[in-house]
Design goal:
globular; five-stranded mixed beta sheet; binds copper (II) ion; 9 strands; Immunoglobulin-like; 33% strand
């Protein structure tokens, strides 16, 4: 029985070590709120929402490579960052559930070809911008 407790003790130490080693040099991803599995890529695109506005209207990503968007919703109003082929929003590239802040969520965006893409908050369509992929 004593051996079992020792094993459990070692296991919890291991879990704590794993939990602590998760945060890399990028400290911009909030206090462990968002998605637990995704460790933030240092090249991840950064965008925030506050006062019903995005912090930027232009994002840039590399063509042919999956990329991440770290979205920091700083207010209680629900927002998302949805990506569409163009402003008609007819062709979806990434559409995730809007969420209320303050909270940071990291989106995983599949690789895209070079071009100019449209993003918006689906709740507030006047919150919008362009992702340049090149
Ligand atoms: Cu919104």
């Amino acid at each position: 029985m004593k051996r079992l407790f020792t094993a459990l003790g070692l296991l919890s130490v291991a879990l704590i070590l794993v939990a602590c080693s998760g945060s890399g040099p990028n400290s911009n991803t909030g206090g462990g709120a968002g998605t637990p599995a995704a460790s933030a890529d240092p090249r991840a695109l950064q965008i925030a929402a506050n006062d019903l506005k995005f912090s930027t209207a232009t994002l840039e990503a590399r063509a042919g490579k999956p990329f991440q968007i770290v979205f920091d919703n700083q207010e209680g109003a629900p927002h998302n960052v949805s990506i569409y082929k163009d402003e008609s929003a007819a062709e979806k590239i990434l559409v995730e559930e809007p969420f209320s802040g303050p909270k940071t969520v990291t989106y995983q965006v599949p690789a895209q070809g070079a071009g100019s893409y449209f993003f918006r908050c689906d709740v507030h369509p006047e919150m919008k911008g362009t992702i340049e992929v090149k």
